[in-house]
Amino acid sequence: MNDYIIKCENLGFTYSDGDDSGSVEIPALRNVSLSVKRGEYLAILGHNGSGKSTLAKLLNMILTPTVGKIYIDGVDVTADDFTEDDVFAIRRKIGMVFQNPDNQLVATVVEEDVAFGPENLGLPREEIRRRVNSSLALVGMQGYSRHAPHKLSGGQKQRVAIAGIIAMKPDVIIFDESTAMLDPLGRREVVEIMERLNREEGITVINITHYMEEAARADRVVVINDGEIALDGTPREVFSKVARLHSMGLEAPQGNELVLLLRAAGCKIDGDSLTEEECVETLYNFISKEKTI
Ligand code: ADP
Ligand code: MG
């Protein structure tokens, strides 16, 4: 078994948009080298148009790189002799959950929707039923198997879409802004599922997001800027580079920004403030200290 489930070397991708008046080349990714360990929980950040979705589509083999190499579980998927069947096998290993839940649900009943992938794999009926039940249970939707997907909330729809991916038993799930269209409750539900899948099921999770608070919860954060990897480290390392993040049109998590602003204003605050809990503790300690002086 390979330690690295994904390995990209000097990856580049350029879109060619052609019409009658000629073709336009749009470079979307340049020189991306990125390795993802099996079982890692990685967040990818970057402003709009920085190339995040292009990278996700390259990893899922929806797109083929213009230059560079991609290895999935040690296999060179960019090799010339890679066949359609091989591509299908890779798509089973690397599932994708997209932004709009409505575009991902195809059936009129929840359980049929979740069964869609395993049915395409040609699995026996009993195995399909087992996978549908266990996948719905994993996302906390076991009571909804006979419900109509279009009547569910955004968060519930997204959970059904995730169940459909889990039912394929992937090694990696890439969430491409999968919480962007959800209300705060739906977002929390989906993030909790990501974390459960990572910790309890050992699935490698890649969360492409523009919510800093979500990224702060990952093991590692990669920032993409104008098609290149700009930062790569633990959330603490990445979010300490506040000026750099600002220069790329990003912010640090709100708690982090708040504590930095207070420090800049002369407050002597010690401690971390990456997560909401840390920020509350840091501010509490600061206020308690002020009171005793
Ligand atoms: P992100 O997901 O970070 O917002 P994308 O990967 O979607 O970024 O886009 C990267 C760049 O590629 C942008 O400049 C975008 O306009 C361009 N792009 C994305 N999809 C296409 C496409 N189908 N045809 C042409 N250009 C595209
Ligand atoms: Mg995108």
In short:
40% of the residues lie in helices and 24% in strands. It has helices spanning 52-59, 84-93, 110-120, 125-138, 154-166, 184-201, 212-215, 235-239, 242-247, 254-264, 276-292, and strands at 4-19, 22-37, 41-45, 67-72, 75-76, 94-97, 172-176, 204-208, 220-225, 228-233. The strands form two sheets. The chain has a six-stranded mixed β-sheet, sandwiched between helices. Strands 2-1-4-5 form a four-stranded antiparallel β-sheet, covered by helices on one side.
How would you sum up this structure, described in words?
By secondary structure, the protein is α/β, with parallel strands linked by helices. It is 40% helix and 24% strand. The chain has 11 helices and 10 strands. The chain has helices at residues 52-59, 84-93, 110-120, 125-138, 154-166, 184-201, 212-215, 235-239, 242-247, 254-264, 276-292; strands at residues 4-19, 22-37, 41-45, 67-72, 75-76, 94-97, 172-176, 204-208, 220-225, 228-233. The strands form 2 sheets. Strands 6-7-8-3-9-10 form a 6-stranded mixed β-sheet, sandwiched between helices. A 4-stranded antiparallel β-sheet has the order 2-1-4-5, covered by helices on one side. Strand 4 (67-72) and strand 5 (75-76) form a beta hairpin. Helix 3 (110-120) crosses helix 4, helix 4 (125-138) crosses helix 5 and helix 5 (154-166) runs parallel beside helix 6. The longest helix has 18 residues, at 184-201. The N and C termini lie far apart (59 Å). 39% of the residues are buried. Bound molecules: adenosine-5'-diphosphate and magnesium ion. Adenosine-5'-diphosphate binds at residues 15, 17, 26, 28, 46, 48-54. Adenosine-5'-diphosphate is lined by residues 15, 17, 26, 28, 46, 48-54.
